[in-house]
Design goal:
The chain is an alpha+beta fold and 160 residues long. The protein contains 3 helices and 10 strands; from the N terminus they run E-E-E-H-E-E-E-E-H-H-E-E-E. 16% of the residues lie in helices and 31% in strands.
Length: 160
């Protein structure tokens, strides 16, 4: 069981996962969204790999919905959105951790953002909203196979 807890409230945790026995079979946001018919992840959601293999299942969630579409922050993205160059980023954190497992930047795919609020409006627009998580908010995930989980406590300072 993997437990991710927002100890202080209003913090996002960027998350990737892989079949540890076959790391090329990685989390697929599109498979996860298509199978459940919802762009948000919450209790009961299964996170699927590219192959369709179940990787993890959300067994407990005190928040209710988590983002699957906004991806991780990165230097190029921060420059485009905020005009800020060379900042700490989840992309950099992911890159450093994946290298320890013999993987490179091609292994970084659209990720889950635990505790991050990204409302999708009727007109299709989306954006980061102020997080509503309280200290102690948590998500529990049960591995459905041997999983490599990679987390980044998001260092983004420019989102609401």
């Amino acid at each position: 069981m993997l437990v991710i807890r927002d100890t202080h409230g209003q913090q996002a945790v960027d998350f990737l996962c892989y079949d540890a026995d076959k790391p090329s079979d990685r989390y697929s946001a599109t498979n996860t969204v298509k199978v459940q018919g919802n762009v948000y992840v919450g209790k009961g959601t299964v996170l699927y790999a590219d192959s369709g293999k179940p990787l993890l299942k959300v067994t407990e969630d005190t928040v209710g919905k988590h983002d699957t579409i906004y991806g991780c922050c990165s230097n190029p993205n921060n420059e485009l959105r905020y005009g800020v160059k060379t900042t700490e980023s989840c992309y950099t954190n992911f890159t450093q951790e994946l290298q320890k497992h013999g993987m490179d930047v091609t292994s970084i795919v659209p990720n889950v953002n635990w505790f991050m609020s990204v409302p999708v409006l009727d007109d299709g627009s989306a954006g980061v909203a102020e997080a509503t998580t309280e200290p102690g908010s948590l998500i529990k995930l049960r591995a459905e196979c041997n999983v490599l989980a990679v987390l980044s406590n998001c260092p983004q300072m420019h989102n609401p």
